[in-house]
Amino acid sequence: MTDKKIVFIGSRFNVLEQLLECETISNIKIYALAESLLEKILKGKQMPFNSFSTENRKSFMEYLLQLDFDILISNGCPIIFPVQKFKEHQILINVHPTYLPYLQGKTPLNGVFYSKYDFYGATMHYIDKGIDTGDIIFQKKHNLTSDIDLGLLYHLAMKLEGTVFKHGWNMLKEANFNYIGKKQEGEASYFNREPSMQIIDFKTQKTDDLLVAIKSFGIETQGVFSTINGNKYKIIEAEKIIHEPLLSMYSNAQPGNIILNYDQKLLVKTIDGIIKMTRFNIVS
Questions:
Q1: How far apart are alpha carbons 124 and 118 in whole angstroms?
Q2: Beta strands in 24-70 (DSSP E)
Q3: Residues 151 and 253 in one domain
Q4: Are 163 and 54 within one domain?
Q5: What is the pTM of this model?
Q6: What is the rounded average pLDDT of the residues 10-24?
Q7: Which residues pair with 265 in a beta bridge?
Q8: CB-based contact 247:253 (threshold 8 Å)
């Protein structure tokens, strides 16, 4: 246990769960993003916390700057901290769901697939004036395999955040919170999800590029959108047809058209093949 006064701010639970196993709740003030999973979990557990929203970020930040604390831990907080305005003794820490410096930014996990990385990770780092650019306290990564979809990636990355935080927190305590961390190594990349990334066109894009986009946003709350035969579809999952007789049978079909509707699945012709849509709905 430490006698440090701790502030936790964010939208995710795994890091806080590890913190609560290491420290007494009386030393921790929790601020959950309104309508986040963290807020829902804390309400269910009947734990004391305060909510904040991005709409009141200015007043919330002014409040934080006046707050008496030693360590601030951010995890899924969509607010940029003006580090130069905090007190000199206050330590600001963030836990990020990628292996920095790769995929800095607000919605980096989409970028794991979209930018074709073959690994995922999590990083505990100090907050500096940049976005996810601070010195690293501890980080860990795992190789990505083809069976991992976006939903599983979210689950794995959030669990790994908790693991990384626990290790990094113990490191800090052993060093009496004097560990300065290490510089980020590698060519930094940045990713934020943009609506334009979620629009695909079967008439002009190649099969593999379409599948990358679909996998990058493949959960119910996101998805990609495409107009096919006059209807707008939200597509969550799809796969590539590789069966040569089937490809040959429809080789002359026009790209962008549905060539077969069966068993709640659709085959759609692309400019260089066929995609099987396995999870989708019509939105207009």
A1: 21
A2: 28-33, 50-52
A3: no
A4: yes
A5: 0.94
A6: 96
A7: 262
A8: no
